[in-house]
Amino acid sequence: MLWRTLQAIFWAVGVLGALTAIYAYAEITRPWLGPVLLILAVVYAVNITVMPTWRYRVHRWEATDNAVYALSGWITREWRIVPISRIQSIDTEIGPLQRRLGLATISVTTASSEGKITIEGVATPVAEEAVDRLREITAATTGDAT
Amino acid sequence: MSTAGETAWQRLDIRVVYQGLARVALSLPAGILGITVGDDPIWPLIAGSVFGVLGALGTLSTWRTTRFRITGQQVEMHTGWLARRHRIVARERIRTVDVSARLLQRVLGLRTVHVGSGEADASFDLNGLASEQAERLRRDLMPGARNEEIEQTGRAGEPQPGPETVIARLRPQWVPLNVIGVWSVFAVLGPVFALHWLLRPFGVDLLDTAHDLIDGPSLVWTIVVAVLIAYPIGIALQAATFVMENWNFTLLRTGDGPDTALVTRRGLLTTRTVQRADGRIRGIAFDEPLLWRWLRLTRTKVLSTGLRALGEASVGDILPRLRLGEARELAARILPDGARPLEAELRRHPRGALVRRIGWAAYGPALLSGVLLLFTLSGALPGRWWLLPLTLLPVTIPLAVVAYRSLGHTTGGDYLMIRTGALNRRTVALQKRAVIGWTIQQSLFQRWGGRMTVGIPTAAGSRHYEAPDMSVDQALAFVAEAAPHLTDVTRPRSAPEERSGPTEG
């Protein structure tokens, strides 16, 4: 959650900062940029205050012997299910910010790029354990050639 | 079975050299003409001649360096002068074989063979084979042709053995069906503009001439007359193109036992052969754009793994535009198991889906005008421009109703069926075994209305199909019915959902 808040703050500072700079220096763009800035400011305010908590409360994931499940999203919720037999690869990714906070992202890929599961912000030891377990299960399950 | 070392490398036909020489001979005078005639050099002519000569040199170097061979398992080619390239494609991966010829090649009896493996990049061209050789290659590479035949090259020229069932042939009635369209006018525009640019250096301004010819009281009148002239010509051109592309169109099923495949052959100048192994077919789909739907026309697509949905031009399209009834008959014969999933009665989606669509139709334009209003208030836009998007409402609301009416889903036999789309209604029948997971989405409004969008990732066709706005019960029933082999998977699936219940409030 902290990670998401930080990320949201970084984005907000980056985008709003750049736009404000343009707003301040180029007078001609003012009538165009004014409303955009106003709306973006509101969006980012919500993003920073509400989104991380909300997401943290919604997000769930689980890996059983048959399938990997993930529930994500905040305004729009999304359940994703991938049967173990359809898994093509499992990746773990740790960004610089995530490393600081001891978090990792697991992605489970299938033959369809739309059917991919990404589980963000899992504690590193938990992620390692889950990936190891998934690797074992996938090795034991024969793929059904899709 | 031949090993890689035994099969001899083949090279392109010697006549490619003549072709190159002929091109040089043709391009040089044009260039000279461009320099000598007139006071100023005529640049298009010179450029054309330079390109011609360079192209010819390119052809010669291709002839020098290209080697290819076909072994029992794979096709190999290496080519290139400065950058050498060696490419191997497994024969069972080959999906399309096109044989084409340009005018000069045709005169010399040469053909270009294009071998495609269904992917956008893993394919190669053999530019310049003798026509008999090309024809033999085409037969060899297609299914049913077994390894032994390749080795006994003498026999491979004969029509391939194995039963062939013809499913469809080109019928004259199909031609008008495929020609009707709003866009025929544009078929004329292209060539006209090309001619215009071609003639410009010679001081002929085609557009001006045309303008003078049909000059009338107003610009509108001129445009109307131009369209009226262009439309029939466009239709004729399209008819001609259609006939040329689909000349001798045959759809047949070849091979015996488990190793069958669908093969389409078509084309007059370019013969195109596409094969789809039955083992890879995962379903079938009908595409019906709005205008065609009124005429009860449809395009038929086969969903198959290992074929790129985009990229290699419309490999998924298996039949030209047809009457719906006829297409249904053929669809039943196209599917290997003879099922008729596309005719099944579809379950309607809940009323809420209609409300949501009308909501979209209303707030889309409203949002747009809201944005414009903000800009107007901040002084960036003058006047009442912000009212403009509201005029879209009479168009978007009927479209929303159309979109709702086309929603539907059901399961039956080995297939699950989904229908969606406003402008382009698409009915998809996908085999249950092709489902490789589920993505279920619920937005805030969908949660309040008790609806879900079910997404089906698959390895075939366009990789992902979506059935928007089912009611929650419908969605759960659909998932359970569609994936009996995943039952144990779908059971605990409802668990996280219930668990998330408390957090919802």
TrEMBL record, chain A:
Keywords for the protein's UniProt record, in alphabetical order: Membrane, Transmembrane, Transmembrane helix
Native species: Actinoplanes italicus
Protein name, as recorded: YdbS-like PH domain-containing protein
InterPro entries according to UniProt: YdbS-like_PH
Keyword Transferase carried by entry: no
PANTHER family: TRANSMEMBRANE PROTEIN-RELATED (PTHR34473:SF3), UPF0699 TRANSMEMBRANE PROTEIN YDBS (PTHR34473)
Annotated TM spans: 7-26, 32-50
Domain YdbS-like PH: 56-132
UniProtKB/TrEMBL annotation, chain B:
Protein name: Putative membrane protein
InterPro entries: UCP026631, YdbS-like_PH
Keywords: Membrane, Transmembrane, Transmembrane helix
Keyword Transmembrane among record annotations: yes
Domain of life: Bacteria
Keyword Repressor (UniProt): no
Transmembrane region(s): 16-36, 42-63, 177-199, 219-243, 358-380, 386-407
Domain YdbS-like PH: 63-139, 404-478
